[in-house]
Amino acid sequence: xxxxxxxxxxxxxxxxxxxxxxxxxxxxxxxxxxxxxxxxxxxxxxxxxxxxxxxxxxxxxxxxxxxxxxxxxxxxxxxxxxxxxxxxxxxxxxxxxxxxxxxxxxxxxxxxxxxxxxxxxxxxxxxxxxxxxxxxxxxxxxxxxxxxxxxxxxxxxxxxxxxxxxxxxxxxxx
Length: 174
Hints:
Strand content: 15-25%
Distance between the termini: 43 Å
Largest sheet: 4 strands, antiparallel
Helix content: 40-55%
Mean pLDDT: 87
Structural class: alpha+beta
Strand order of the largest sheet: 4-5-7-6
Low-confidence stretches: none
C-alpha cells in the first residue's frame, strides 16, 4: 500500500507542472527534442488534469489503506471471512462446518522463511483460483502470507480456535 500511495506522487507533480509554470515539462521537452519547448494544446491540459486526478486517487487509496487497513481475516460465530480475492473485493466467507484446519507454518520463499497461516477446507470452490497475498498449496488449502500482520500466525490460530469453540458451544446451547 505504501508503494501505491507513492506511485501517485509523480503523476500529481507532472500534472501540476503542466497546469502551472511548466518548469519540469519544459526541461524534459528541451532534453528530449533538443530545442525550444513545444506549445501546449488543450488536450495536454486535459491529460494534466487526468494525471492529477489519478495520482491523487492512487495516493489517497494507498494512504487510506495504511492508516485504516481492512482486516485480512475475521472470525465470528458464523465462520471465517478471509480476503482472498483482493483488497477491493468482499472477503470469502467460510462457515465453520466447511473449515477442516487452521494452523501456523513457515514456508520457503526463494530461500527466505515466510510466516503463513494455512487454512484447509473440506469443500471445493471457496478458494479463488489465484488467491491474493496467499498461495494455493492444495485444491482446498491456501497459505496466507502473514509477514506484515500485527499478530503472529500462532496467535491468530489461538484466537480463531477460541472463536470456533465459542460458536460450537452457542450452537449446542440452541
